[in-house]
Amino acid sequence: LVAEMRSKGIECNVHTYSALMNVCIKANELELAQDVYKQMLDEGCTPNLVTYNILIDVYVKKGQWEEAVKVLDTIEKQGVQAEVRTYTTVISACNKSGQPEQALKVYEKMLNAGVKPSATTYTALISAYGKKGQVEKALGIFKDMIRRGCERNVITYSSLISACEKAGRWEMALELFSKMHKENCKPNVVTYNSLIAACSHGGHWEKASEFFEQMQTQGCKPDSITYSGLITSFERGGQWRRALKAFEQMQAQGCHPD
RNA sequence: GGCUAGUAAAAUGUCC
User: Least crowded by CB within 10 Å, which of A6, A80, A161, A205?
Assistant: First the structure.
């Protein structure tokens, strides 16, 4: 299509180039997306914020957080005000690359620019710290979130509970789980999976079992990750009979082992 | 002067 446009003397503009870059991302042709961007510049077409957002996406998919941050710098240098999603996407790049401190820098930049973080922004930061086992830092972000009046959602809580699991803080995981309940935030299968993993990690197979039962009475269907967590908790507790029983139950429910 | 085209993103286990 682009070739046809050229042959007919129709010029590509910022919209067509941006759309084209996005198509490349969808097709997982990340290098091509970058080529399109370069060509756009060569043709003297000026990128706008949408283009930059897409370019940041390219770097997110490539796992290149430094490049994502550079794009953000470029945006700022041009005196353009980045959007919430721009910052959040850069934070997500840092999260994927295991760079919580870099994510925090972007977050601070965002606040300095007077841009209000969204629940997704906070959750990405929480996840970044959680992955590194820095649960206290993750909690700090969570408190910030509350202080600034941002709504917490099921993903926020699941991230936090998972952060507790990685840090070996099962009691804190339980606390967060009840806090979540108080806020009328309904847990889903991921939340329960994280919670069961936290109990398992803490050596509490009874608790893991209890939540396994609870999730089902709440209409939450266990998946292979749930069973994996549960069986692991039995294994750690030397409960091989229970482990075997859980394994059989899993198959009886049509959930296949992986 | 009005309308109209393009972009996302955050959570879970085991083993390796």
Answer: A6
